[in-house]
Amino acid sequence: MNESALERESAAAPVLAAEGLALKVGERWLCCEFSLRLAAGECLVLLGPNGAGKTTLLHTLAGLREPDAGRVLLDGRAHAAWRGEELARFRGLLAQQQPDHFSASVLETVLVGRHPHLGRWGWEGPQDEAIARAALREVGLEAMEGRDILSLSGGERQRVALAALLAQTPSVFLLDEPTNHLDLHYRIEVLELFRRKVRDGAAAVMVLHDIDLAARYADHVILLDGRGGVVAGSCDEVLQPEPLSHAFGHRLERHELAGRVVFLPQ
Fold this sequence. Notes:
The strands form three sheets. A six-stranded mixed sheet has the order 6-7-8-3-9-10, with helices on both faces. The chain is of the alpha/beta class. It contains ten helices and twelve strands.
């Protein structure tokens, strides 16, 4: 193998992989065995009806729960092989809900994303604050760093959570409904933001509910049908009327409109 071929193989090496993965809750199987590979510069979208297991799958990929079969590898290593702070620097998770039990400023909340980069007794310094402020600019909240998070709307709070994740600077973004609470403008802005991160060499896994947005931003799709079935593959392979109609329980038609793929219910 020549040098250029070695470089291509290295560039395509997965930063996130699953082998023979299967999940269940109680006696119910969420998905039967499947495998995936996600390289730097790629986006994977998890799709499926409510209760199909998208969040459970995302948490399994993040290492928050063990799979019921198979294994998950981050950069070629099982989660157990990573030190806690090292893992937190490599992969970042956006949770679906952001509970706030105490008052704090927007900037203080975003600085939580810098904790994996601090020592055991470390405090945030000027560089950490600069990174946090840059993250706030990326989500359009630079003028609100002094606001109390308890005073924010749902969409503003979601953007603060996204800024904290950006301040964490992980290599792999795991996003559970990143467009939650966002209006149309910020929904597109956020997805474009993570597309830029992916183009710059990060990898992203997103739970989305909008099939049209998945068609627009995904390189790969995992479609859960809520009955244990799973279809995994490229965006064009998975986003077809037959598997989507089966998963969502409603007949869908695929169309092209202004150069984009859209799906319309019959």
